[in-house]
Amino acid sequence: MSGKGSIPKTLSKKLSDKIRVGQIVKVQDIEDTLGASLFSPVQTRQQRKINKTQLKKLIEPNKLESADNTKKKVFEPVATKTDSKLKDIGVKQGSLVDNIKDAADKSVLNAIDQPKGSVKWEPENWRLILQNIRKMRSDAKAPVDTMGCHKCSDDEADEKTQRFQKLVALMLSSQTKDEVTFEAMQRLKSNHMTPQAILDTERSKLEELLKPVSFYKNKAKYLQLASKILVEKYDSDIPSNIKELEALPGVGPKMAHICMATAWNEVTGIGVDVHVHRITNRLKWLQKPTKEPEQTRVHLESWLPRDMWQEVNHLLVGFGQTVCKAVRPNCAECLNREICPSTEYKVKGKKKIDTEIDIKNVDQSAPKISKPQKQKIM
């Protein structure tokens, strides 16, 4: 080939090599496939996608996981941590949010979701405070000691009837003083108190027996509804687990946990009534203030040793009835007055002590002068 349009063979070969190299370098999405047989750097993106799909079908999932040890190590701890959380709170695997029933359960997850090795939260001086409460409770009897729900059953009745009577006492105790509940239980026991006897009693007469218990009309209705279930489903006995106890009309979490402890001798949780709810918030035994007793129960159980769950209810109820009352608590008589975060003793007592010291110093240092001399100086 000759003329101006002709190109020497040597120059043509060099230009061809240069173009091929340039084309290969400009491919932006070349992937490192570690020797994948179906990959070629000069393929189009669509071709590579097709090849990847075919490659995945050829490789078994188990072999893929064993080959990719790095990815397996990254994701395993996350799954284990989630499974551990679900196992600790008794939530079935699935959607975590869907399985959480209330805000109290969410707070449990927040408490559990702490880095490993972190110190478990505990309120300051709680052991000393509890020891002082034990001493104060041993020195003075409270209504709960002699008229609490555990004292309302008939000791001469069979075990099945005693369990039923303890449940009834708990149902009546809601927002009612122990003295009033105890008297109502005495009237009911005189009427041969069993589930069948409650069913056979006319509603109006049952209401009269309960009066003046708080909400006695509603409680009379709940008693008969619950008694009907117990007769038909439990052979006039009471359920032996929390879930079925709470399913009974008029029975809440507090009643169920206390009933399990007093009737079945099994500790399943802390019974939180108005006294326990109030006092634990005053003592700041909770990581943050709570508005509902059930929230208080969850926070309290997150740090308090389990062997103290049954004791703490009885201690705090009696303490709330005698010293740490809802209105005008007797802080001056409390052994925890110097360390309680909500005490009113420090402010009032400090002023009183300072005044006494000042008067004493003045009496010792001031010269004794008669009244006429004082008038003369003035």
Report on this structure:
By secondary structure, the chain is mostly helical. The chain is built from 20 helices and no strands. It has helices spanning 9-25, 45-58, 61-67, 69-89, 96-99, 103-112, 126-139, 143-147, 159-173, 178-189, 195-200, 203-210, 216-233, 242-246, 253-263, 274-282, 293-301, 309-322, 345-365, 371-377. The model is unreliable at 18-42, 62-115 and 348-378 (pLDDT under 50).
In short:
This protein is mainly alpha-helical.
Ordered list of secondary-structure elements with their pairings:
Layout: H1 9-25, H2 45-58, H3 61-67, H4 69-89, H5 96-99, H6 103-112, H7 126-139, H8 143-147, H9 159-173, H10 178-189, H11 195-200, H12 203-210, H13 216-233, H14 242-246, H15 253-263, H16 274-282, H17 293-301, H18 309-322, H19 345-365, H20 371-377
Total count of helical runs of at least 4 residues? 20
Which structural class is indicated by helix and strand composition? mainly alpha
Largest sheet: none
Q: Give unreliable regions as ranges.
A: 18-42, 62-115, 348-378
* SSE series: HHHHHHHHHHHHHHHHHHHH
Strand content: under 5%
Shape, per Cα inertia axes? flat
- Gap between N and C termini: 141 Å
Task: Write down the overall mean pLDDT.
Answer: 75
Query: How much helicity do the residues have?
Result: 55-70%
Q: Taking Cα atoms only, what radius of gyration do you get, to the nearest Å?
A: 38 Å
Number of strands: 0
Features:
disordered C terminus; 0% strand; mainly alpha; single chain; 60% helix; 378 residues
